[in-house]
Amino acid sequence: MCGITGIVGKQQVVDRLVDGLRRMEYRGYDSAGVCTIDRGQLIRRRAPGKLSNLVTELAENPAPGTTGIAHTRWATHGAPTRANAHPHATDCLALVHNGIIENFRALREALVARGRSFESDTDTEVVAHLMSEQIEAGLSPEEAVKVVLPQLRGAFALVIAFRSCPDMLIGARVGSPLVVGHGEGETYLGSDALALASLTQQITYLDEGDWVIATPGGVRIFDKDNRPVTRPVVASEASAAAIDKGDYPHFMLKEIFEQPTVVAQTLRNYVRQTDLSVALPQFDFDLSGITRITIVACGTSYYAGLVAKYWLEQFARLPVDIDVASEFRYRDPVLEPGGLALFISQSGETADTLAALRHCKAAGQTIAVVANVPTSSMAREADLLLPTHAGPEIGVASTKAFTCQLAVLAALAANFAVRRGRLDRAAEREIVAHLLEAPEQMAAALAHDDEIAAMAHLIAPARDVLYLGRGPDYPLALEGALKLKEISYIHAEGYASGEMKHGPIALIDEAVPVIVLAPSGPLFEKTVSNMQEVRARGGRVVLISDAEGIAEAGEGCLATIEMPKVHPLIAPLVYAVPMQLLAYHVACAKGTDVDQPRNLAKSVTVE
Ligand code: G6P
Q1: Predicted confidence band at 210 (pLDDT cuts at 50, 70, 90)?
Q2: Quick check: 527 and 423 in contact, CB under 8 A?
Q3: Band of the pLDDT at 485, cuts 50, 70, 90?
Q4: How far is the CA of 301 from the centre of ligand 1 (A)?
Q5: Tens digits of residue pLDDT in 400-450
């Protein structure tokens, strides 16, 4: 999603601005641009497509200056063209924006009626004109911001450069993230600490509604009521070194292979190995009065939540509602007193999930957040923060964050079960022992990488693929289908295997591969019956099971992938691995852009 950097300093900025954009490339974007101020002129360079196009443009037409702003745009209003790329500019200022100005149509009509003409189809350009009107009327940039910000509705982060004030940038955040970086005689603004990591580790996280005046000497911060405020400077842990792929061809593959390590790292924070007990990071947090759990998330994180619903109901006997965030807010959910609202997010910034969190907070729910970025908006607004320790996830398609979320959620379910008297010490020890087996079993699943790569050609030509699973493997079927469509652009559907005969069975023919997830265990026979229904209709099945399951039902399948035999509790963590590897190798076989698939964004900061 859109990425912002800004530098107000003493040395040339353009290369460093572009470096900041490069660090945010993983978020997904479709055009890029910079604007510097040089000898009283705004120097603007923009290019559609990859950042390399902007770099080529800058080689031909440099952008000198010691103050500048830069942006990668993920198109919302208007196609990804040069004219719609940020920065947007008027004679007196240039600005970059992340988020959506929801009332832009009304604002634009009023501006046009007042004689302003527009160059782009974006919502952003209205802000440039609104600010310019005030500046042209004689207001200072500071006064103009105070007039314009209250007119904007929606979620946004803005950074504005003024032609007549070359030593100043103004930034503002409502909903979308923006951080301040503190340097030696320089000040930085950026979408996150990672974007600024090669410039500084000294970061200030702005609160909701804050706006700032940044100069080389520092920042003045104001709250939404324009009162001067102080926000702490904290040391960022984001690494200054460019995050690299090591020996892997893609970040996604590297992150898939990191899973045994990062899941073990995450579990260390949730279980005590000495006595095999579960221990949440905020152990003294009182969960005893919780009577109901509402889980809200998007994308892959939502599927982690669906798995957690099975666990929380099975182990803790707590009723669980679950929704995708974009639906949750608008269906007027019933939120009774004593409820815990649980939000799951890799980034901690997904706009819909964040808005749902705020809705639940206002409704008096206790807020728990499972997030991979501990400094994110969601993490900072949580009553109970449950961090995943996956490390930065760069591939747009989430992999290691998902399995770390599952590890945290399994520990949470066990913890609730213990507190509610549903698990005695012996059962708790058993559960923890199984959880601790997950990293090793995931490593065993990864050992099948070559075999899965070799079967990618069976799936790559397909136009449609079905994924089937039952119980906690049903959300995994959904996740497997999501992975495949995200990165290989093959249409894929995940279905509860028992539900297949209520519709998708009509799709079955020899051209539609069906991936069946069926660990041996209590649900195996039923899933295999559904698989036979597929085969009886000429369907070609890829069976993912353990040796026992494959011995029983593998004959006649198009292919089989053998997983280690694992306890049902950790099966979702282990079976996630072949889902990810299959999607990855099919995408490679099709030659798609695995780490930055078309149209997708890593951190979706617009609703
Ligand atoms: C985007 C990403 C997905 C991710 C989803 C939710 O769509 O491409 O990989 O699962 O957002 O993101 P979150 O950061 O809230 O987990």
Answers
A1: very high
A2: no
A3: very high
A4: 7
A5: 999 999 999 999 999 999 988 899 999 999 999 999 999 999 999 999 999
Domain boundary among 235, 266, 291: 235
Domain residue limits at 578 = 447-601
Q: Is 397 in the pocket of ligand 1 (CB under 6 A)?
A: yes
Residue 297 CA: nearest ligand 1 atom is 15
Specify if 581 maps to a domain: yes
Hey, what amino acid is at 459?
Answer: I
Q: Which of helix, strand or coil describes residue 589?
A: helix
pLDDT band at 451 (very low <50, low <70, confident <90, very high): very high
Work out the angle at residue 454's Cα, subtended by the Cα atoms of residues 448 and 460, and round it to the nearest 5 degrees. 120
- Dihedral over alpha carbons 55, 56, 57, 63 (to 10 degrees): 50
Q: What is the pLDDT of residue 328?
A: 94
CB 234 within 8 A of CB 192: no
Ligand 1 atom closest to Cα of residue 396? 8
Annotated catalytic residue 588: no
Q: Domain boundary residue among 420, 442, 464?
A: 442
Residues 462 and 586 in one domain: yes
2 is catalytic: yes
> CB within 8 A of 566, min separation 6: which ones?
434, 437, 441, 519, 546, 574
pTM: 0.85
CA distance 519 to 117: 62
Tell whether 83 is covered by a domain: yes
Q: How far is CA 134 from CA 90, 128, 167, 212, 607, in A?
A: 12, 10, 20, 18, 29
Kindly state the percentage of the chain with pLDDT values over 70. Answer: 98
516 and 580 share a domain? yes
Task: Identify the active-site residue in 254, 400, 483, 602.
Answer: 602
pLDDT tens digits along 543-561: 999 999 999 989 989 999 9
For 524-550, the pLDDT digits (tens) are 888 888 888 888 888 899 999 999 999
Residue 48 has a pLDDT of 93
Catalytic residue from among 2, 35, 165, 360: 2
Is the domain of 549 the same as that of 496? yes
Residue 69 belongs to domain with CATH number: 3.60.20.10
E-only strand ranges, 192-265: 202-205, 211-215, 218-222, 228-229, 234-235
- What's the confidence (pLDDT) of residue 194? 86
Q: Is 346 in the pocket of ligand 1 (CB under 6 A)?
A: yes
Residue 27 has pLDDT above 90, yes or no: no
Q: How far is the CA of 585 from the centre of ligand 1 (A)?
A: 21
Q: Is residue 488 part of a domain?
A: yes
Whether 607 is covered by a domain: the verdict is no
Say if residue 70 is in the same domain as residue 219.
yes
pLDDT in tens, 5-23: 999 999 999 999 999 999 8
Using DSSP, state whether 349 is helix, strand or coil: coil
As for how many domains the chain has, the answer is 3
Q: Does residue 299 have its Cβ closer than 6 Å to ligand 1?
A: yes
